[in-house]
Specification:
By secondary structure, the protein is of the alpha+beta class. Among the domains are: 158 residues; 165 residues, Heat Shock Protein 90 (2-Layer Sandwich). It has 23 helices and 5 strands. A 5-stranded mixed sheet has the order 1-2-3-5-4, with helices on one face. Helix 13 runs parallel beside helix 15. It starts with a helix and ends in a 21-residue tail after the last strand. This is Histidine kinase. Keywords: Membrane, Transmembrane, Transmembrane helix.
Length: 560
């Protein structure tokens, strides 16, 4: 027990230390010094690995850690410059103690606070990000150029605009290669998508056939260049190496562009480091402009896809709400039909009780007439209730309503009716789809009968499953058979009441098509030799899951 108490005490003490601000400040200071020490041996004027580290720290660390960041940068630069004070001059050594990160702080602060670099927690304005990178690179290039001007050096070594341009492009091209990966890691850390799903999507993108083919072709090309180090071959490599990045840009957007652009930058820098030609700046400028354009295009594509995804989600949500409204309306109709039928039964019972009580006081023919009127009223109430929601549907399901209720309505008109149902998994469909099937069948029958005089109506229903998507095919065909035409047209007044008996609203073709589209379906109308045919394809379960997007809505073309 005592040992357990000591463990809890140590844990609580460690937790308290971690929560203290001074410990976090020291952690930032130590972390920056460690990263600086690890990357400095691989950094030079053409490949400044420290620049993206500084910019990433300023972009993503809270403002309260900027002082520790500046102190760490000053210590790191002093450790590099002070030992060489005798060689390059103490003025240069002491001027190097001024942290370079200090010059970029106003730029980053202005971009974060005034220009909306991060409009939301998981959104980035890429236009502001590129502008911030360019200004930070320019400021750091000017600072380094000033330090070089103060250093003791060989008088024959020129210090002019070419060196300033080389310093600028070296920092900017490194930022292009490294910063997008830091940004990607931050966005993945803040994402609410499960890790397994994200890793699966990343693996599918990386190991796609075109990605592997382009990456391997670029690698083979570089191997050939390394063995045939001709100037023409190296010039050709600047164009060839950007092709994989250009292709990948138009896949998932700026992430894929980063996947292709970073290897391109690494390859170009490795080819140019030992290339003693004054056109190094032009070559690096070319690849920097190319990669900037590709990343900008990728950001626009990603933003457009996010907007399309948001619009798709809004459309699916509207459809989902429309289905809910249909279900609620059908539920109200069902309850109203049940209440109406119950009220009709009560009224019928009351009428019979009254007639039985006064039967001896009424003449026989008058009593029979009252009984017929009571029975007729009961039938009319039942028919009205069935038009609202069939009792066969409530008691025995959708197949009974299609077989019995519609057949009863059409039989009153002298119209033959046939119903064929191939039921595989019809009962597993949502209730709202059953409602849609019945209502569309009734609406189609009513619509067809307004277009022609039918002697027969044939209904065909079939369902199935394809790729885990449950679908339903409903076909309603109105047929005119010459042998039965006299029976079919014998009572046109009854035919005009068919729509009300079926509970139809008299929808036109456009409304029927829109109703089918609520279930990811479509309506096809065909005029045959014998009549008119309506065919519906309905989807029982949408093949796109309705999930709230984790991307905030935005209309800015550069925000994603």
């Amino acid at each position: 027990m005592a040992h357990r108490t000591r463990q809890l005490g140590v844990w609580n003490m460690g937790k308290a230390i971690l929560q203290r601000e001074w410990f976090r400040q020291l952690a930032v200071l130590a972390g920056y010094l460690s990263v600086y020490a690890a990357l400095h041996p691989f950094s030079d004027a053409q490949w400044s690995l420290i620049a993206p580290v500084r910019l990433a720290c300023l972009l993503f660390l809270p403002y309260r850690y900027w002082l520790s960041l500046a102190i760490g940068d000053s210590i790191a630069q002093g450790c590099v410059s002070l030992p060489h004070g005798k060689d390059f001059g103490w003025l240069w050594a002491y001027s190097s103690l001024v942290p370079d990160v200090l010059f970029a702080m106003p730029i980053v602060w202005w971009c974060r606070r005034q220009w909306g670099l991060f409009p939301a927690k998981r959104l980035v304005n890429f236009q502001v990000l590129w502008l911030c990178s360019l200004m930070a690179s320019a400021v750091w290039a000017l600072a380094n150029f000033g330090e070089i001007a103060l250093a003791k050096r060989d008088p024959t070594l020129p210090v002019g605009s070419s060196m300033l341009a080389l310093l600028f492009i070296g920092k900017y091209i490194t930022i292009l290669a490294i910063l997008p990966w830091v940004l990607m890691a931050r966005m993945e850390y803040l994402s609410e998508t499960p890790w397994k799903q994200r890793l699966g999507e990343l693996a599918r993108n990386i190991f796609a056939a075109d990605t592997l083919a382009l990456s391997l072709s670029a690698l083979l090309f570089l191997l050939w260049v390394s063995h045939h180090s001709h100037e023409d071959a190296r010039q050709l490599s600047l164009l060839a190496i950007s092709l994989p990045a250009a292709w990948l840009t138009f896949k998932p957007g700026w992430r894929a562009a980063t996947l292709g652009a970073t290897p391109a930058i690494l390859c170009v820098v490795s080819l140019l480091r030992d290339w003693p030609d004054p056109s190094v700046f032009q070559s690096e400028t070319f690849i920097a402009v190319t990669v900037t354009f590709l990343l900008a295009s990728g950001a626009r594509i990603t933003a457009q896809r996010h907007r399309d995804e948001k619009e798709r989600f809004d459309a699916e949500q509207i459809i989902h709400l429309a289905r809910q409204n249909i279900h609620l309306n059908e539920t109200r109709l069902r309850k109203s039909a049940q209440a109406l039928k119950l009220a009709g039964s009560t009224l019928h019972l009351t009428q019979h009780q009254l007639l039985a009580r006064f039967h001896s006081l009424l003449p026989a023919n008058e009593a029979r007439r009252y009984y017929r009127q009571a029975t007729t009223a009961q039938d009319q109430v039942n028919q009205l209730a069935d038009s609202m929601h069939p009792s066969a549907w409530r008691e025995r399901g959708l197949p009974a309503a299609l077989h019995e209720t519609i057949k009863g309505f059409l039989s009153d008109l002298g119209v033959a009716y046939g119903c064929e149902i191939k039921d595989r998994r019809l009962s597993s469909l949502p209730p709202v789809v059953h409602m849609a099937i019945y209502r569309l069948a009734c609406e189609s029958i009513a619509h067809i009968n307004t277009q022609m005089t039918c002697s027969r109506v044939q209904l065909y229903l079939r369902d199935g499953v394809t790729n885990d998507v449950h679908w339903v095919v409903l076909r309603v065909e109105g047929i005119m058979e010459k042998a039965q035409i006299n029976d079919a047209v014998y009572d046109t007044s009854e035919r005009q009441l068919l729509a009300s008996k079926l509970g139809s609203h008299g929808f036109g073709l456009d409304t029927l098509r829109n109703h089918a589209r609520l279930f990811d379906g479509e309506l096809h109308e065909r005029i045959t030799l014998k009549g008119i045919r309506h065919t519906y394809l309905l989807i029982g379960e949408s093949n796109r899951s309705l999930q709230r997007s984790t991307i905030s809505a935005t209309t800015h073309p550069w925000v994603t």
